[in-house]
Amino acid sequence: MFLKLDFDAILFCMGKINTVCVFTGSSYGSREAYREDALKLAQIFKDNDITLVYGGGNKGIMGVLAKELKHLGGHVIGVLPKAMDLPSVRTEDVESELIIVDDMHKRKEKMYSLADAFIALPGGIGTLEELSEIFTWRQLGYHKKNVAVLNTTGYYDSLLAFLENTVDEGFMSKDVLDELIVIENIDDTIPLLERDAAELPDKL
Predict the structure, then answer these.
(1) Contact at 8 Å (CB) between 82 and 102?
(2) How far apart are CA 133 and CA 128, in angstroms?
(3) Which of 24, 27, 114, 200 has its CB 3.0 to 4.6 Å from that of 61, i.e. a possible disulfide?
(4) CA distance 60 to 68
């Protein structure tokens, strides 16, 4: 079931972006490269005056990114559901602004509405769920915001292969898949997120 957003308010062509929603793990993962790319992304956001929107708290790669950006003097907006506003999740304040919402659906609704673009860093099933939903909305024409994955050490290679198979098997248009931005070099992040969004064929 899709969330009810003011879709007319979020349909626009890309240009300069001011706010990026990042999906990533509340764990650290098994490779130091995941942490290193989160630190690099924080610096890129600061250098480009980009506000971070993320799921709140300071656990895992989420926390690494938020803490570093705030340390650099950048702006960080965290969005947490009431049930997750816990000392174990918030062992220290890493947000410039923390928004508490009723539940997970409201959390995503708020994150999506605040962002100009979306990027998934390595993460688990929660990251995949958020990425899949926001890219599905892109396919359906509910928004024209760019959606990307940061493919640290090939983390998303198997997902990309699966998506290519959905095209081969007739379940997704190649035009749609081409709109998922794959960032192989983190230095290309902002130019890629600011590229113009293509008009997609009517899914329905």
Answers:
(1) yes
(2) 8
(3) 24
(4) 12
- The DSSP bridge pattern shows strands 147-150 and 76-81 to be unpaired
pLDDT in tens, 127-141: 999 999 999 999 998
pTM, full prediction: 0.88
Amino acid letter, 143: H
Distance of CA 78 to the CA centre of its chain: 13
> How high is the mean pLDDT of the chain?
89
**pLDDT tens readout for residues 82-113:** 887 777 666 567 889 999 999 999 999 999 99
The two tokens of residue 71 are 């340390």
> CA nearest 108: which of 54, 45, 51, 38?
54
> Tokens for 77?
């907006």
